[in-house]
Amino acid sequence: MSISTKTSSPQPMRRIWNTPTSGARWLWLALSLLLYTVIFALYLVAIKTQAFPGPFNEPLLGFGIIAFLLVLSTAAYSLRRRFARSLPGKAQAWLWMHTWVGMAALLIALLHENFTHILHNYCQNFSCFTNAYWGTTALLALAILVLTGIVGRLLDTWQAHNIARDASTNGVGIARAIEERILELEYEVERLSAGKSEPFKEYCLQAINMGASFNAPAPRLDAREMPDFQRAAETLKTRQQFVLSLQRQLRARLIIRIWRYVHITLACLALLIITFHAVMELLANVFHILHL
Ligand code: HEM
Ligand code: HEM
Q1: How much is the average pLDDT of 187-193?
Q2: DSSP result, 25-86
Q3: How far is the CA of 158 from the centre of ligand 1 (A)?
Q4: Beta partners for residue 17, in sequence order
Q5: In angstroms, rounded to a whole number, what is the distance separating the alpha carbons of residues 108 and 102?
Q6: How far is the CA of 235 from the centre of ligand 2 (A)?
Q7: What is the pLDDT of residue 90?
Q8: DSSP letters along 135-201, please?
Q9: So what's the pLDDT on residue 21?
Q10: Residue 89 has pLDDT above 70, yes or no
């Protein structure tokens, strides 16, 4: 999730928060579409001209190899993001590659296995998932992964929008700035309640401890304490609004963090199964090294 701010506005209260867009979105979409169109044309020719088109024969066998290479390229985003940040291109552009190439990999894998068990020859028993070196399981794992990826991108856009809207309307900005502001307001309350009566101090302490849910009536105080109490109560009210804003932004971040955890765990599992299928098929049916 990336949020940036345009600083051209002179008033910090009216900053515009937005997610940066990238030309890479269209470039990778066009490349993926082109590849898929070429492969789909080859697929149509194969199913019209071959008696038994399937993953054993070319060109559908080759589609499996291409799908595998695309899955590896998709996973390479992690390399750019974590391990090899010096790789050329912006992370944002790599994420668009990740998105479109990941989807193309699934569509090409479907052509590779000629939609077996998906549109015909439906699975009758468990062996269907382990046959052909776990081919069907590899396909399902890829499909689930791509689906969680799409859900995640939508969630990311939605939550980034929520944070952006909150950050542009709360008068301070994103979480760290809110935390700093809350601290400043707490110091202010502390200053106002120093040397005051117990009910005054107790009220302020409770308001700070209970945060956004605090809703107690004002205590009975000596008239001399009233001006400072009113200022403290107003400061606490402002603080309460910032606490609410912080909670909203942290919730949005948590949703994205949980989703990323799910997607990355699934990605590791899916990569394991897909690699197993691809390597075994390469050894058995392409290089003819394995004879099981
Ligand atoms: C190096 C890459 C790959 C090669 C060489 C390859 C090769 C093959 C071969 C030879 C078969 C037929 C095997 C049999 O029926 O015993 C097959 C089936 C299959 N492959 Fe691949 N494949 C590759 C990548 C992939 C990928 C990336 C996926 C999807 C994620 C996939 C999904 C399938 C499925 C679903 C079947 C059909 C399984 C069945 O009929 O039960 N393959 N593959
Ligand atoms: C072959 C299929 C895919 C694989 C193997 C895969 C794998 C991964 C991995 C390993 C990460 C973690 C990157 C990191 O933080 O190191 C990731 C992140 C992500 N993936 Fe995928 N993914 C696939 C498909 C997709 C698809 C199709 C989409 C969207 C339509 C998608 C959207 C995302 C998003 C939004 C992130 C988080 C980006 C970030 O926070 O930097 N993924 N994916």
Answers
A1: 94
A2: HHHHHHHHHHHHHHHHHHHHHHHHH-SS-STTSTTHHHHHHHHHHHHHHHHHHHIIIII-TT
A3: 36
A4: 5
A5: 10
A6: 43
A7: 86
A8: HHHHHHHHHHHHHHHHHHHHHHHHHHHHHHHHHHHSSS-SHHHHHHHHHHHHHHHHHHHTT--HHHH
A9: 56
A10: yes
Of 23, 2, 22, 12, the C-alpha closest to 159 is 2
Checking if the pLDDT of 267 tops 90, the result is: yes
Give the integer Cα–Cα distance in Å for 44 and 56. Answer: 16
Say if ligand 2 is within 6 A of residue 181 CB.
no
Query: Which residue do the tokens 């998709």 mark?
Result: 74
Res. 50: pLDDT tops 60: yes
Q: So what's the pLDDT on residue 83? A: 87
**C-beta 76 within 6 A of ligand 2:** no
In eight-state DSSP terms, residue 284 is: I
| Nearest alpha carbon, ligand 1 atom 26 | 64
- Among the ranges given (25-34, 176-185, 212-221), the one the predictor scored with the smallest mean pLDDT: 212-221
Q: How far apart are CA 55 and CA 61, in angstroms?
A: 5
- Probe target for ligand 2 pocket from 97, 98, 151, 277, with the most ligand atoms within 8 Å of CB: 98
- Higher per-residue pLDDT: 6 or 133: 133
pLDDT, residue 292, reads 64
From ligand 2's centre to the CA of 199, what distance in Å?
54
Q: In this predicted model, what pLDDT tens digit does every residue of 95-117 receive, in sequence order?
A: 999 999 999 999 999 999 999 98
Q: Please count the other Cβ atoms lying within 10 Å of the Cβ belonging to residue 74.
A: 25
Nearest to residue 245, comparing CAs of 185, 190, 165, 129? Answer: 165
Letter string b/e over residues 156-184, b meaning 16 or more CB atoms within 10 A of that residue's CB: beebbeebbebbbebbbbbbebbeebbee
Give Cβ neighbours of residue 282 (< 8 Å, ≥ 6 apart): 65
pLDDT of 232 reads 94
Token readout for 97 is 């590659």
